[in-house]
Design goal:
By secondary structure, the chain is mainly alpha-helical. It has 2 domains: about 40 residues, no CATH class; about 100 residues, Helicase, Ruva Protein, domain 3 (Orthogonal Bundle). The chain is built from 8 helices and 3 strands.
Length: about 140
Amino acid sequence: MKDRSGKSLKELFDALHPDDLIRYGMIPEFIGRLPIVVSLEELKRDDLKRIITEPKNAIIKQYQASLAIDEVKLVFTEGAIDAIADTAIKQKTGARGLRAIVEKLMTDIMFEIPSMKGGFKEVVITEDTVLKSEPPEIHPLQKSA
């Protein structure tokens, strides 16, 4: 995003000084409590996808572990992961919004799964589950030894 001078917001924030914040209207006592002012680049789609899938405590891994207790295998298709990242970008919520998006997807299924009969199940979250609020696909699975 560029402003009237043709500079990107990142360039403007990089050039920000405490005096600029005072002129904007912040009180000096508050500015003195900010030891460092840093500008960050917006997260891209691939960054958001990595955040929900790669870390040891990624939100998707947390739900997979939670459902594994009820003998359920949780699978997110690549399209679903793309759609979650795109939704966070569209909502301008960044990485913090990812958790809310995934929680909204999982709320109903987390309550329904324990009461379903049939043992091992596979729950597949698809792109349509994310974008069109369609229910996830549920398939029976054979218990592996």
